[in-house]
Amino acid sequence: xxKPKLVAAGVALAVAVAAGVWAVVAAGDEPDASRPSAGASxxxxxxxxxxxxxxxxxxxxxxxxxxxxxxxxxxxGTGGAAGGDSTVLLWDPKAKRxxxxxxxxxxxxxxxxxxxxTGPDVYVRVSAPDRRVPVWDGKTWWHVGAPGAPxxxxxxxxxxxxxxxxxxxxxxxxxxxxxxxxxxxxxxAAVLGSxxxxxxxxxxAAVPFTATVDEQGRLVRYRIELAAEQSKTAQxxxxxxxxxxxxxxxxxxxxxxxxxxxxxxxxx
Length: 268
Hints:
By secondary structure, this protein is mainly beta. The protein is 7% helix and 32% strand.
């Protein structure tokens, strides 16, 4: 599958893997009548304080687990300049529902890729600044399958990125609830995409990271230092916020759904 540009959340990972990286996300764009809504909250939900491990490794492992306990907003960047490609996700990990939107800057405007997970099904819609690719019409929601099914998700899986933090090594505390160390990503292809080995090579066994948790032990900042290209370090720069926000994701109207998506629809 070829794409017009590397997906924002996967740019760092895909610098050497031009095809097969797929990251998408939600929120922040203007609502329209044809797109199912995903609710957002500006205030974190009230959560009863829980004991937070005091040792750095324990704190990070606990934070990775907590990412699947509440809904959240995830903003994904690559350490680049503001105003570039971006990805935002609203996700309910328990219900497996959410909306992702990735915005990609191209010479003549912006390509927007939206991925809607309703629980049992996944839909993708692509909007392009011109109509040279008719199926990127910004209207049709292509039914690409069920979550986790072959072809339903390729490359980077934003909903599971926190799970890469469950086995940190060489961890040191660098500030108040701030940590740094390395990750062994050799077995993380299901989360980072099959191209991770080719991109990272021998570095996959010890990839640098930094992470910050809040007072309740939840992961709020997470940066994974990925491959370098022409002496420029590429990163996945993650910010988790709006914990407990309401997330609604309903199937699109039947007359907007396309079956048998063509190969140039991400996830087809």
